[in-house]
Design a protein that fits this description.
The structure holds two protein chains of two kinds. Chain A contains 13 helices and two strands. Chain A is mainly α. Chain A has a two-stranded antiparallel sheet. In chain A, helix 2 runs antiparallel to helix 4 and helix 6 runs antiparallel to helix 7. The radius of gyration of chain A is 22 Å and the shape is globular. The termini of chain A are far apart. Chain B is an all-alpha fold. In chain B, helix 5 packs antiparallel against helix 6, helix 5 crosses helix 7 and helix 6 runs antiparallel to helix 7. The chains are: A mainly alpha, B mainly alpha. At the A-B interface, helix 3, helix 4, helix 12 and helix 13 of A face helix 1, helix 2, helix 3, helix 6 and helix 7 of B. The complex binds fe (ii) ion (3 copies). One fe (ii) ion binds next to loops of chain A.
């Protein structure tokens, strides 16, 4: 069959909401886009463990420590599912991780911001996991089967994280003066970076059109960002806190909140590596990998020895 | 009564401090699956610690788990010295966990028959987790001992670092004799032989020899610690010290 026919069948499947599976024919660019996006998502889960991990040893109560440990561990699990989804496209976990370490692959820029106080942990759960969910709920319907299925599992846990984050801020918002200040300060620092998580404006975004046609992405950056702003603007009232944007205002005509201009210079700067923690985050991942080399080698050598032993016994 | 409180605090402190140590690996493990595994152990241990602290709080009265964990000082903590030893490399962390889980498994086996219903219930619930920790860490001791020349050498170093902290597990503290007499606590000296037998079996598979005539450190159970504990508590307790009387 000529390639055009394959392409036609492929696009028909997509148009009819039939998932693309690993063994199906797919255009090279579709495979590459999915590898790029899924691996970037996997790396984000893993790098995302670092800013929150920063507070595990200092969590203010035993209960909060257990919740935080479980949350960060969930993120590791998400990374694991996503690396596996990536492998179904023909790229090994090791290769994928090498691309992160070499700087070829990206991860979500939000994790290049520091967690300065305990309130940042609540703010991350509420705003960062919250923003991630908007994107991920959409991705449960993405056209590549293994990615969509991974997202279904992940989304359940992410919405739990968001609720826990909000609840932890709610406690601060009802606490002492210092706690309320800590809470407001964290919201002030995480709000704009969280909005940047949805990526550039639609008018500036390069990957969107093809991604929409292939139903990898099903909503535009601006749509998702607007949904997020509408949701959070309501929730922040419950906390009795404010969002750091004086242009934030309900627009009766649009039935959405209007908001101020995002600092795109900052966004691109962080993407390019100049965020407050880019170097430390990548270095922490590389160190973990390098210090683990002897462990992985030993595990492989031991598995090999066991295999040859059982072969001998079988012979 | 005081002996039972101290004994319960000793059980709580050891699991908390080891949990705190293991949690340092979270996000930094050598293999993603193992990062998850060590974090899981850390979570199980903090769960056990909370059960013991909550019970201690009830016995003491007018306090809670966080006050006990966050507002006592170095000299009041009763954890085993083994638990506070630094993580070192992955081999050292594995070996520390194995030594401890092997001991804790034997301990809980008996503690689940304690005349104190609460202690018995905590042990009966926790022993399921402990048997998993024991299997996991024992398998890793073998894997690393037998793996490559480098991993074998690293395990020998780990034994060198940690063996001297294993003796304390089997020396009863002053508060242990009364609880043993009332059949609420476990006589730890009786665990020494079975522990050694099990360790010998695992070490044999791992091609590691059991050290002999090593000096054994002690004191942790009575509140005399290594210098590490002060720094662990500094981090652990930072928020409660900086923002006293707050809800979190
Ligand atoms: Fe995520
Ligand atoms: Fe996640
Ligand atoms: Fe999450």
């Amino acid at each position: 069959m000529p390639v055009q026919n394959f392409e036609k069948i492929f696009q028909e499947k997509i148009d009819n909401e039939i998932k693309i599976e690993p063994k199906d024919w797919m255009p090279d660019a579709y495979r590459k886009t999915n590898i790029r996006q899924i691996s970037q998502h996997a790396h984000s889960e893993i790098v995302g463990m670092l800013p929150e991990g920063n507070w595990i040893s200092r969590a203010p109560s035993l209960k909060r420590k257990a919740i935080l440990l479980a949350k960060v561990q969930d993120e590791a699990g998400h990374g694991l599912y996503l690396y596996s989804a990536c492998e179904t496209l023909g790229i090994s976990r090791e290769e994928t991780i090498n691309d992160l370490h070499s700087g070829k692959a990206k991860y979500s820029s939000i994790f290049n911001y520091p967690t300065l106080t305990w309130a940042d942990i609540g703010a991350i759960g509420w705003l960062v996991d919250g923003a991630a969910i908007m994107n991920q709920v959409m991705l449960t319907r993405t056209s590549y089967g293994p990615y969509a299925r991974a997202m279904v599992r992940i989304c359940k846990e992410e919405s739990f994280h968001q609720r826990q984050g909000f609840e932890s801020l709610l406690v601060l918002s009802k606490g002492t003066k210092e706690q309320r200040e800590m809470c407001q300060d964290a919201i002030n620092r995480w709000w704009w970076p969280a909005l940047m998580m949805f990526g550039p404006k639609d008018s500036e975004s390069t990957n969107s059109d093809q991604g929409m046609k292939w139903k990898i992405k099903r909503k535009s950056n601006d749509e998702l960002r607007q949904n997020f702003i509408d949701m959070i603007t309501e929730q922040v009232k419950v906390l009795g806190m404010t969002l750091p944007d004086d242009k934030l205002k309900w627009n009766e005509e649009r039935k959405h909140y209007d908001f101020g201009e995002i600092n795109w210079d900052e966004f691109w700067n962080v993407v390019k590596g100049n965020g407050p923690c880019n170097k430390q985050r990548l270095q922490a991942r590389k160190d973990a990998w390098d210090k683990g080399t002897w462990v992985r080698e030993a595990a492989a050598a031991h598995a090999e020895k066991r295999k040859s032993k059982s072969n001998q016994q079988a012979a | 009564m005081n002996a039972k409180i101290d004994y319960t605090l000793h059980l709580a402190d050891t699991t908390l401090i080891l949990s705190q140590r293991n949690s340092e690996w979270c996000g930094h493990g050598p293999i993603l699956e193992q990062d998850i595994a060590i974090t899981n152990i850390s979570l199980d241990l903090i769960g056990q610690a909370r059960n013991f602290y909550q019970y201690a709080a009830k016995l003491i009265g007018n306090t809670d788990e966080d006050k006990i964990a966050y507002l006592r000082t170095e000299r009041e903590f009763k954890n085993l010295l083994l638990a506070e030893q630094p993580n070192g490399d992955w081999g050292q962390t594995i070996l520390r966990q194995y030594f401890f889980s092997q001991y804790q498994y034997l301990l809980y086996q008996q503690l689940q028959n304690s005349k104190d219903e609460q202690l018995a219930a905590i042990a009966a619930k926790a022993i399921k987790e402990t048997s998993y920790h024991l299997r996991w860490s024992g398998e890793w001791v073998i894997r690393l001992g037998e793996g490559t020349d480098e991993s074998h050498q690293r395990m020998l170093n780990a034994v060198n670092e940690l063996w001297g902290y294993t003796g304390e597990m089997f020396i009863p503290a002053t508060y242990e004799s009364p609880v043993v007499k009332e059949n609420t606590g476990v006589s730890v000296d009786s665990l020494k032989q079975p522990w050694l037998e099990k360790v010998k079996t695992i070490f044999e598979e791992a091609t590691i020899t059991v050290p002999e005539k090593v000096f054994m450190h002690s004191g942790g159970k009575e509140g005399k610690h290594t210098e590490h504990l002060g720094f662990i508590l500094t981090e652990l307790q930072y928020m409660q010290r900086a923002y006293p009387n707050s809800e979190w």
